[in-house]
Design brief:
about 65% helix, two-stranded antiparallel ribbon, mainly alpha
């Protein structure tokens, strides 16, 4: 059963559109009501057709969250590595490109 306020909304929307197009006089009130009822059903089914109200897969939700955490941790680690490399380059008077971090160990080339 369609709620009266929802039906009224759609009827007004359709009548407004038809009036703007100068076509309102071509349709009866029963015609606009029928169009409104059809649009209500269409609007309700839109979310199903495009997956708006689909329940997310909890495993995928957790995986996405873990990916975000992983990216944040990697970004932090990269910032820390950059600071460490720069500090070492300054202290040892080395080129930054000659310093790298591998498996948690800082290594540098001596030329």
């Amino acid at each position: 059963m369609i709620k009266d306020d929802i039906l009224e909304y759609w009827i007004e929307s359709i009548e407004s559109l038809l009036d703007e197009m100068d076509k309102l006089d071509l349709f009866t009130s029963d015609d606009t009501k029928l169009m409104a009822e059809a649009l209500i059903i269409t609007a309700e089914q839109e979310s199903m057709a495009f997956g708006y109200d689909a329940i997310p897969n909890p495993q995928l939700t957790i995986i996405e969250h873990l990916k975000e955490l992983h990216e944040l941790r990697n970004a932090k680690l990269e910032r820390e590595n950059a600071i460490l490399r720069q500090t070492l380059a300054d202290a040892k008077k080395l080129r930054l490109n000659d310093i790298y971090v591998e498996n948690g160990q800082v290594k540098y080339l001596i030329r």
